[in-house]
Write a structure and sequence with these properties.
It is a single chain. With 432 residues, this protein is α/β, with parallel strands linked by helices. It has 14 helices and 20 strands. The strands form 4 sheets. An 8-stranded parallel barrel has the order 6-7-9-10-11-12-13-19, surrounded by 6 helices. The protein has a 5-stranded antiparallel beta sheet with strand order 15-14-18-17-16. A hairpin with a 5-residue loop joins β7 and β8. The protein is globular.
């Protein structure tokens, strides 16, 4: 059943204060402070997003505004505004300075599944604050070895916490070499040696059973193009074994815009086959802006939409979980090949903007916030991250493309605005 959302996003302007904003919207100051986790209400940044929530709010009519333009501003309708303001006798005659009530109730967009990747070292407070918003907790990761065994991880406490919160714990396996990174050669060994492959499947099932996991997520990346069909065959084989035991199977795939897309990251990920063989496909729709690349949005909405447009043409849309990054980057400019950006949290980006006195700007095509600043060595920096507006823009794609849900990489940092926006738009499905 659909619920209701009581949410509006205010972008801080020069001269704004929490107190002035609260007065303008007719809501308590403390509510703005609480909803936005403001440690210091005096520290507002021009361009920062603030969540305004409640059943309704006040709006002071500005010169030239009509009920239609006001309704568009708040995502409501003229009819709803008139119902909330019976004193308005003539909708065409409102005047500057007039105060009207704006109803914020709108239907949620539906129920979705939400996955969150977590490393075993996640702080207990962050985990417990996030679990209410999740369907699945994917614990990253059991690294496969060339002989089919798995490098152990300390996951028992996460599995227990997940199940207590009615969240389905998912085992994750990856072709990351111990102490290194994703390995094409390691994937090749697993996908072409039947003895090793059978050993791996047996070891996976043993852990699923012993540790009370709900299912398996396979994150094999940078697979050789020539191993594409071998990977499909492996998914067919392990999927058959898992389903017979009541487990689900998920894969993580690169963000493709066509079946002919070239590159080691893309070619072995067969969208059509995955759509037929697994229960969910997590599309990693992030890392346009990445550590070793030029400064740009991490997950530009316009580029994400192109990936989803192709994906839903070859995969049942309800099987797709759209990737959501939970981080940003700080690049030193001008970009030089081989240079590395610094990763930072979305909250950390706001703290940095305040510290360097930067105004936050918003790129409309990518639907992403960013800002520039100079460091103490007078080097220019660019920071791209996420805020309530950019998160809302991408979450709207879930409804537009009728997706099954979203998947966060990772939940190890807690960003409260994300979960408030998510819960305002969708109900989160629980399987336990």
């Amino acid at each position: 059943m659909k619920g209701v959302v009581f949410l509006f996003i205010h972008t801080v302007k020069p001269g704004d204060s929490v107190y002035a904003i609260a007065k303008a919207y007719g809501i308590p100051v403390q509510k703005i402070i609480d909803d936005n986790y403001l440690d210091n209400p005096e520290r507002l940044i021009v361009g920062q997003n603030l969540i305004i929530s409640g059943d309704s709010m006040r709006h002071t009519v500005a010169s030239g505004q009509s009920l239609y333009s006001i309704a568009r501003k708040y995502g409501t309708t003229v009819e709803q505004i008139l119902k909330a303001n019976p004193s308005i006798a003539n909708p065409a005659r409102i005047s500057a300075g007039q105060i009207i009530n704006i109803p914020l109730k709108t239907a949620k967009l539906g129920t979705i599944e939400v996955n969150g990747y977590a490393f075993a070292n996640i702080e207990a407070q962050v985990l417990n604050s996030t679990l209410p918003h999740l369907t699945y907790l994917s614990i990253f990761s059991y690294q496969v070895r060339p002989d089919g065994t798995l490098a152990p991880i300390n996951d028992a406490h996460l599995i227990e916490a997940a199940r207590q919160a009615r969240v389905a714990p998912m085992m994750v396996i990856s072709n990351i070499e111990e102490g290194a990174s994703f390995s094409s050669e390691l994937a090749h060994t697993i996908l072409t040696d039947e003895k090793v492959q059978n050993s791996l499947i047996d070891n996976v099932i043993k852990i699923l059973n012993e540790k009370n996991y709900f299912g398996l997520d396979i994150d094999f990346e940078y697979i050789f193009r020539t191993d594409r069909e071998n990977y499909n065959a492996f998914l067919r084989k392990i999927g058959s074994r898992l389903r017979a035991l009541g487990y689900i199977l998920t894969t993580a795939v690169a963000p493709k815009t066509s079946s002919a897309q070239r590159g080691l990251l893309y070619e072995a990920h067969d969208y059509v086959a995955h759509g037929q063989l697994v229960d969910h496909i997590i599309i990693m729709t992030y890392e346009w802006g990445y550590t070793y690349g030029p400064a740009q949005a991490v997950a530009p909405a316009n580029q994400v939409a192109k990936v989803l447009s192709y994906a839903v043409s070859v995969i049942p849309s309800q099987k797709i979980l759209m990737g959501m990054p939970n981080y940003g980057y700080d690049w030193t400019l001008p970009f030089a090949e081989g240079s590395a950006a610094k990763t930072l949290s979305n909250s950390g980006a706001l703290e940095l903007a305040y510290r360097v006195r930067a105004n936050i700007q918003y790129d409309v095509p990518s639907q992403s916030p960013y800002f520039y600043y100079y460091d103490q060595d007078k080097k220019r920096h660019a920071v791209w991250f996420d805020d309530a507006r950019s998160i809302k823009a991408r979450l709207e794609l879930v409804d537009r493309y009728n997706l099954g849900g979203v998947s966060y990489w990772t939940i190890n940092r807690f960003y409260p605005q994300n979960w408030i926006v998510l819960e305002s738009m969708y109900n989160v499905k629980k399987l336990l």
